[in-house]
Amino acid sequence: MGEKYLMIPVQDLRHLELFCKNCQTGVVLDLADSGKGFPKQCPTCGAEFDRLGGLPEILGRYRRFYEDLAKAPVNARFRVKEE
Ligand SMILES: [Zn+2]
Fold first, then answer.
1. Under a CB-based contact definition with an 8 Å cutoff, are residues 81 and 5 in contact?
2. How far apart (Å, rounded) are the C-alpha atoms in residues 49 and 70?
3. pTM of the predicted model, to two decimals?
4. What distance in angstroms lies between residue 27's CA and the mean position of ligand 1's atoms?
5. What distance in angstroms lies between residue 18's CA and the mean position of ligand 1's atoms?
């Protein structure tokens, strides 16, 4: 039997959910909404999301990756192997 893959268009990677390591609260980011900043702390327990620094830069790079690939003159999608 062949391996099965989920095919995920890049446009469908628009929402990224961050989970607090302390209390598991999830915060959904909309990468297409560049006017919004990134959360600095957990809305439930107040844990710092950027304790080690650099998270806004990492998320900014991911947002640019999403934006650039989504408007590229090709259709791109991820192949995610199903277990
Ligand atoms: Zn939390």
1. yes
2. 27
3. 0.72
4. 10
5. 10
Helix H or strand E encompassing 29? strand 26-30
Q: Which residues contact 18 (CB under 8 A, 6 or more apart)?
A: 26, 27, 29, 39, 49
Give the pLDDT confidence of 5-62 residue by residue, as tens digits.
999 888 888 899 999 999 999 999 988 887 777 888 999 999 998 877 888 888 888 8
- Rounded Cα distance between 5 and 65, Å, is 22
CA distance 52 to 27: 19
* CA 28 to centroid of ligand 1, rounded, Å: 14
Distance 39 CA to ligand 1 centre (A): 12
In the structure encoding, which two tokens stand for residue 37, read together?
């900043």
> In angstroms, how far is CA 41 from the centroid of its own chain?
16
